[in-house]
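note to self: the first set is below, dont mix up w the second
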Amino acid sequence: MAQSGTAARTIPSSRFAWLMALYAENFRRIQQVVDLAALDEGRWCSRGADGLDLHVDVLARHRYMLELRMSYAFADPATGLPEPSAYVRVYLDACQAEVTHCYVGQRWQDVLGTHPPAHAVFAHRLRMNTFLSKWLEHLRGAGHGGDWLPAEAAA
């Protein structure tokens, strides 16, 4: 049987492999939205066609890793926190990006407790990183990722 011109995708054989593949997909997508090599530590702003300013805070830049916070320039009326918001670790050497938490002070321990079962931690990581994947896809479609301005200049 002849194969089509599209590349065959391999379905990961385990849930862990699925999560690692999602991290790799998030890395590819974040590269399309954020200029990882050019942004220094600080707050940066992208104006997309959706009318919403995307803020990316480069919290730390290490040799092989970046720590980012991504959020829109508006706050949740109930909490006052940026909404949506995602803290992302980008592993430059491994070409992976993972969400560590989605709100200020909301690490997995805050959400799941101090001794959650492994399946609960896994499910939580899968949900957060699926959210990031979909959000990055939306941001790219909305035209984010072109010109980045320091947030003060964009205000």
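second set (the one i keep forgetting abt)
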Amino acid sequence: MLFNSFDFAVFFPIFFVLYWVVHKHLTIRNVFLLLSSYVFYAWWDWRFLFLIIFSSIVDFVVGGQIVKAKTKSAKRTLLIISLLTNLGLLAYFKYANFFIDSFINSFNFLGGNLDSFALQIILPVGISFYTFQTLSYTIDIYRGRLQPVKEWLPFFTFVAFFPQLVAGPIERASHLLPQFYKKYNFDYDRVKSGLLLALFGLFKKMVIADRLAVLVNQVYNNPTDYSGFELIIATVFFAFQIYCDFSGYSDIAIGISRTLGFDLMKNFKSPYFSRSITEFWRRWHISLSTWFRDYVYIPLGGSRKGNYRTYANLFIVFLVSGLWHGAAITFIIWGAVHGIFIVFEKILKEQSWTQEDAVAKFNSSYFGQAWWMLFTFVVVTFAWIFFRANSFSDALTVISGSLEMKAITKERLFGLGLVEAELKVALVAILLLLLFEAFHNKFGALKVFNRQFILVRWVFYFIAIFVIIIFGMYGENAPKEFIYFQF
């Protein structure tokens, strides 16, 4: 069930009313929330519902047994059971064909003669997200940072909580799980702010992301037919498409959760205003980057074992991040590009000349900040080529074609998939988004908005709904699914 679908438009109001009818009875509320979450997930494919239930059972049992275990080795064995179960399922459904292809290609390269084949495996929606979420529970219990829950119902609801089940934010058990033990009273202000945030997410998804996707898909599905500015335009548009698509989902998830009384972690903080790749990853997909920091980077040694080990650890984390996104060499290269620049920035920061007054003065100036912001955006956008390309050869085609600086005619520009009016809507919407984020970062847009007269606020609500209805993308050719559902 998609947030931007008619099904959800029917499902959520009914769910919302019934939820607040039963909210005073904690057990009944959690049962209703769990069953509703299962219905929400089963709407895609009920066959994969058993994976969520199975993962919930394994980690609930393992978490309880880790505390009861007498020895360190017994605790470690139980943790390994959790890791092998969850990562094993993820590896099978997401990476089986990738590893088979890699083995066959390597074998044939060494002189063998094996025919390529692929298993008919369907990737369960959200498996990468809820796998990492449940693993945080058993790992934190093993580390002694979290006590296991005694009741199965809150834990199962934590794993399957529908607003963030299929594309995050990837919540920690220490943050979200205790919230299922609390009773919440209906709070008009929370409901209002939650719906407003969800509305903003729908604007980003339906008005910007889905509109840009039409042009991006046409160009990237046929990269040899385009060159120069056409490929550059498509690549820049993809940078905004994926941001609006993914952050739009996060906004809707956080907003819906807020209307129910729950608080989810912030997943994006205006990432395209970053002045370095390091800062970009403090602002982009925060729930994933902090997960890798706590459960991969720090266990590898973090920055505690010397500079070279730190560089290696950082690079490994971004390779793994690329592999998490998809079983393809393009995703690994995407992660490697970010890893290389992260390491380069760390090396650069350690050089004494970067601390000199002249350098510091330039970096703190408006021109310096604008320069590094632009440079970071260019690097991030370049890396997006590998992320979006259908294959490695397509990525090379886009890169080489982008270097052919041919003048683009009006006919070619409006023949990229968006007619003139649609292209203007996209550009205006992107500009409004950037202006809003700049204003919000400086003044706090929500605080300013809440100080306005109630009539002004309600006029804004109706205008926002009107804009989404009028300018949202609909129809068979309009993209509907969120990009990160495939991960």
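remember for set 2: The chain has two domains: 6-102+122-186, 190-486.
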